[in-house]
């Protein structure tokens, strides 16, 4: 199975410089960057390193996933945010879990052996709340429904008809995987502190957005 690494960037030049040599490009068949419109040299940095950079067509974190899926030629897609939170060393681990037979594998920040240095108490509570709701509604056994660091079979993602465009796409993808009875694996990870740049998340805005997503999917069956 061919693997594709999709790296998300938006003004992450400091993290890009610190993480680049740790990204295991030699263990992935195809790698490229989906850039949301960086103005700090992030896109130029990756191009200078020989990594293809695509400017996403539509605004939004969720749109970056869908755009990356369209550009990818691999059977396995790995989504990696280049802000310092995710450990590059876990990339081949996610790929191997897909090759074992899982359809979706989530790098869990809150399961056994996992930890997050970056999540605030409010964000931890929000994840716990949504994890509880999702597990109860669709008989799941998940620990983390929001982490962008994940791998999925491309054919499964294509069939999901994902609608969301922002920070609610991870929840939509996770719920639709449960609804479609896909096998979901979880790999415990350590979420590191962000390296430079500016966080794009908004606790209230994105919390309400994800609540709407949960309610819509719940009503849909």
What does this structure look like?
With 221 residues, the chain is an alpha/beta fold. Helix content is 39%, strand content 19%. The protein contains 8 helices and 9 strands. The strands form 2 sheets. Strands 3-2-1-4-7-5-8 form a 7-stranded mixed beta sheet, sandwiched between helices. Helix 2 links the parallel strand 2 and strand 3. The chain is globular. The protein starts with a strand and ends with a helix. The model has no long low-confidence stretch (mean pLDDT 96).
Topology:
Elements: E1 3-9, H1 13-19, E2 30-35, H2 42-48, E3 52-55, H3 61-71, E4 76-81, H4 91-99, E5 104-108, E6 115-116, H5 121-138, E7 150-153, H6 154-159, H7 169-179, E8 184-188, E9 190-191, H8 203-219
Parallel strand pairs: 1-2, 1-4, 2-3, 5-8, 6-9
Antiparallel strand pairs: 4-7, 5-7
Helix pairs in contact: 1-2, 5-8, 7-8
């Amino acid at each position: 199975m061919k693997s594709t690494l999709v790296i998300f960037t938006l003004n992450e030049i400091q993290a890009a410089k610190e993480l680049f040599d740790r990204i295991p490009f030699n263990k992935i068949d195809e790698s490229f960057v989906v850039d949301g419109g960086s103005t700090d040299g992030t896109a130029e940095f990756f191009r200078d390193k020989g990594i293809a950079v695509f400017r996403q067509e539509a605004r939004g974190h969720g749109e970056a996933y869908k755009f990356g899926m369209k550009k990818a030629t691999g059977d396995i897609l790995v989504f990696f945010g280049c802000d310092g939170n995710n450990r590059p060393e876990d990339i081949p681990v996610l790929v191997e879990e897909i090759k074992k037979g899982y359809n979706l594998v989530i790098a869990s920040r809150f399961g056994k052996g996992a930890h997050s240095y970056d999540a605030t108490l409010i964000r931890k509570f929000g994840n716990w709340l949504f994890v509880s709701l999702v597990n109860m509604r669709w008989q799941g056994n998940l620990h983390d429904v929001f982490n962008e660091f994940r791998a999925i079979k491309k054919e499964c993602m294509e069939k999901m008809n994902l609608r969301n465009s922002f920070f609610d796409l991870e929840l939509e993808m996770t719920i639709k995987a449960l609804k479609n009875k896909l096998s979901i694996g979880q790999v415990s990870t350590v979420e590191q502190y962000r390296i430079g740049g500016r966080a794009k998340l908004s606790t209230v805005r994105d919390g309400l957005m994800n609540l709407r997503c949960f309610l819509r999917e719940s009503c849909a069956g």
